[in-house]
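Bug #77: duplicate submission created two jobs. Keeping one. Sequence:
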Amino acid sequence: MTVRAGPRSLYDNLNRVIPNPFPWAETAKILCRKHNSDLSVFDTAGTNLFEAIKHAFDLKEGSIDLNGNDIERFMLQRLCALTFSKVATVSGFQAGGSINPRLIEECFTRPTLPPPLGLYMTYPPPHVQRPGGVHTEYTSLYNSLTRNPAGCRISFGPISMVFFIEATENAMLPLYNYRPSGFRFWNGDKLIQEIRLHWENGAQSDFIGFDFDPNLYSNE
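Kept job's structure:
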């Protein structure tokens, strides 16, 4: 499968493109250009995941191995970037709050976030599954008391991933499949795409299968 580097465009829940803050860390006046460049591996991981899902929609057969922890770090650096550059929104309104600088350090030192933090699956909002193409939505999640970011959600067709950087007793989102083994896309009895996620401490749940009608996402 041919994949490309660089971040895919993200949209808010009103289907408006979210500006890509580049270079994101320099916007925050925190990281030098070299360190900012070092984060590109996470953008590549996220983009490769989205490209593999898009290939499944296009009925292109294949498989890919991805580092699940780098998918989490992709979501973390998007959360940090969009918060620092003040382009993150909640229901169309600019989000406030700030990111603990410790999280920036964790992007580089790459510790594995302990359970229950990290990546979960949830159910995608209806508007990203409407006909007329694959729609990618990004939503920041905030602590209702401190108004600081608690995580984010990225939805892409039938897949919706939630990443938490702080524990929350009431996430107000249905969560399932913590750190899954990956995704399998079926067209009837035929396996179209297998996306394998490899985790530094092992996967915590099984593969998630999708038997979908590709015509739902067709641009035709």
